[in-house]
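User: Hi! I'm working on a homework problem where we have to compare a predicted structure to a textbook description. Could you give me the structure for the chain below?
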Amino acid sequence: MVNVKPNQISFAIGKVLQEYNANVVKGVNAASEKAAKSLKRVTQEKAPRKSGKFRRDIDCKELERKPTGNIWIWYVKTPRHRLTHLLAKGHRKANGKGMTKANDFLEYGISKIEPEYEADIEKAARGEQI
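Assistant: Happy to help. Predicted structure tokens:
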């Protein structure tokens, strides 16, 4: 138990909240990195396998470090980055007759990783280890 004088109570509360914020940000950063790397792995497994080049070009990286939390991004490296939308949504065939079937590799990955990511964020907010 800590004795706090009435005129120092706001300072003591501020210090406790700063410690809590630092722990939550650290947990959110760990959860974000884990989710980004899991999304990369899952989408590589489910992506089209015709030549394997598109699958190898799927990657993730830390885009920016901020005091409020790091930003991670999933992407496909150049030159195959243009195929992502066409594969995920489908496109008109080369002969102009009909559409190709959409491959839901990205939606599948997001739907699989998102609940786990949300649970990890909640753990971080409660102060638990991820």
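For your comparison, note the following. The chain has a mean pLDDT of 92. The two ends are 28 Å apart (CA to CA). Good luck with the assignment!
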